[in-house]
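Table S2 (text version). Query chain:
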Amino acid sequence: MSIPTVTMDQMREVDRIMIQDLHIELNQMMENAGRNLARLAFLRFRPSRVVVLAGPGGNGGGGLVAARHLANWGVGISVVLGKEREEMGPVPAHQLDVLDRMSVPTVAEPSTADLVIDALIGYSLRGNPRGRAADLIEWTGDQAAPVLSLDTPSGLDVTTGEPGRPSVSAAATLTLAAPKTGLLAADSVGDLYLADISVPPAVYDAFGMEMPADLFGEDTVVRLG
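Corresponding structure-token output:
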């Protein structure tokens, strides 16, 4: 099955079309991403305890959605934020509020677990990670537990495939909507999966992309490599 790829700028336009033209809101895409991430984490890694590293944007929001689903399935969850609470975007902040009301703990520092979910930085990174995000990325490199990244390993340039300093090295990556060009050439991606976040065919058509019509016919997560 041939799957087209997108650059960072093309993915920005996909998101713009989804939100502005089609009114498929960020919280809807975030819910789809996070549920698929939780399902992949649960079925592939079978963890009893998971640390979720969540950034302040849409990527972090997807990680928080995954934390909610995994907690509902009996997995022990702790959440570590890549920014202060007041720096969270409004949609991720809503997801964090839900977790607070569920008594899912948000902790200052990560601890050992069976699985680390990396939802710190999404596809829009330019340059090297800095500050708290960089510290948490470096922490993942010292862990024996596997890392599952959402959309891209944090720190990776999704267009060129060049890792930043620092950058996450993942056991598996669940990318969204379409695989980003740089993911196919990067060793740090691990096993690459693609998740359905309900992108209508017309969005792909706008880029001249021929996405297989039956891509998600059997499952909302498919393995690409």
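Notes on Table S2: The chain has one domain: 8-223. The longest strand covers residues 49-54.
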